[in-house]
């Protein structure tokens, strides 16, 4: 039932011209040149007036391809719209359109770090989920040529928990959910959406978050551990080898599940 409500929400936003967003900052466009490929990066801010909330985003795509598939990238706590560029640029260079959403804004209440973490952080994740839906509707209006039956959600840490919450509560929204070390929201024990998780070398998930080996086999959930710390997955301190490993895992999984 929830995925039907989601489809209705997206349709209302799109066909109403996303009337809930009265303001959109003028895009700032710039290029980056990596491995002989020019990647276009458009940064802008949507405003969801129904919540009085700005949503900064960055859109990555290349001039030499016409992307047909959308990846929504959700940074870890405190991440900005241009963080995780090593993942976004690589995806764009492989033919995807990538939209990175900045979920945390100056003035936001800090997320809780003690107590019942799941219960206390759930409202923050819900806010992120609403932003993801809002941005998806805006992108659909801007780029109607994309295949919206295929959406891949990628998230690191707190952003991964938002993505996994969608996998649980709105399984029809994304075809693929990839998390980098989400630690709080349990994996759905279900075959849809397709789930792949890249785990760090240093920070374990909370009890009950990860499926058992038997559940992974039953529901075709893929989990891989890499030689990178939880914090380094953001790309600030990772080595080139670690970035290459993570990028290869993500691209191979996406391409094998097209």
From TrEMBL:
User: Any keyword Protease?
Assistant: yes
* PROSITE patterns the UniProt entry points to: PROKAR_LIPOPROTEIN
Concerning InterPro entries, the annotation shows:
AB_hydrolase_fold, Hydrolase_4
Signal peptide feature range:
1-25
Write out the GO MF terms. aminopeptidase activity
Mind listing the UniProt keywords for this protein, alphabetically? Aminopeptidase, Hydrolase, Protease, Signal
Domain (Serine aminopeptidase S33): give its ranges.
66-178
Which intervals of the chain form a coiled coil?
none
Instruction: Output this protein's name.
Output: Serine aminopeptidase, S33
Originating organism: Mucilaginibacter mallensis
